[in-house]
């Protein structure tokens, strides 16, 4: 079975500038929280009044570093979050213009049909390439958009062959992605960030601290990147999910072509086991 590290390494070879790869609150609104919404864990919204629930965040770690969230509290019951990385690098515009598809509208349609709440970790470059889709995803209450950087460059050295962004540009890269979401008209945007390749260190966590985002990782790797067997992807997820799990998958047709087929099997089987699908913002509330 292809491991996540191997698939990301393969992505670096195949794509060049690859397209893949605790509770509390600050008490202050983060710069990227939903308008008027303080970034406080367990904050309540006016459910049913039309007001959006306020997305929770984690407090900074000791030393003022960006907090990292990897899975929900198992004691909260059989909840699971499916997350999808919409990857595209800053330099892949020519390939998109040539017909390569970095989107996956059939996957989004499937999630809507199956009524699966999901968090899409989107790069700013993806939102620029597919603004209509970014707008639709970012205004559908079934979904929320989180930040996956603007350029999908690595935030550390030696991250599966990804080109690296310097520490002095990390915060501005994240802000540029949020700006792309706003330009697309997305409103369901949460103050969460996923490091390209999942690679981070203290330098990166310190650089992003002023942005008041929570870094979101995962505890279940789907293995969907460059996979050709949807059953193998589905089985890897089904074998790994536990109460509170956070699953990483991809919303990139050219680099993860069997994800939708895998999801078609994953969703009913997990529901049969008594699992409830939630967005990361709900998983973080528990």
Our estimate of the beta-strand percent is: 5-15%
Q: Determine Rg (CA atoms, Å).
A: 17 Å
List the total number of helices.
Answer: 10
Q: What structural class is derived from the secondary structure elements?
A: alpha/beta
Fraction of residues in helix: 25-40%
CA(first)-CA(last) distance: 33 Å
Number of strands: 9
Shape: globular
Question: Can you summarize the main beta sheet?
Answer: 9 strands, parallel
Low-confidence stretches: 1-31, 33-51
The arrangement of helices and strands along the chain is HEEHHEHHEHEHEEHEHEH
Mean pLDDT equals 86
Salient structural properties:
286 residues; alpha/beta; globular; disordered N terminus
Describe the fold and architecture.
- The protein has 286 residues and is an alpha/beta fold.
- Helices cover 33% and strands 13% of the residues.
- Helix 6 (167-184) links the parallel strand 4 (143-147) and strand 5.
- Helix 3 runs parallel beside helix 9 (259-272).
- The chain is globular.
SSE topology:
Elements: H1 4-15, E1 68-69, E2 79-86, H2 93-97, H3 105-114, E3 118-122, H4 124-129, H5 131-137, E4 143-147, H6 167-184, E5 189-193, H7 202-208, E6 214-216, E7 220-221, H8 230-240, E8 245-250, H9 259-272, E9 276-277, H10 280-283
Helix pairs in contact: 3-9, 6-7, 8-9
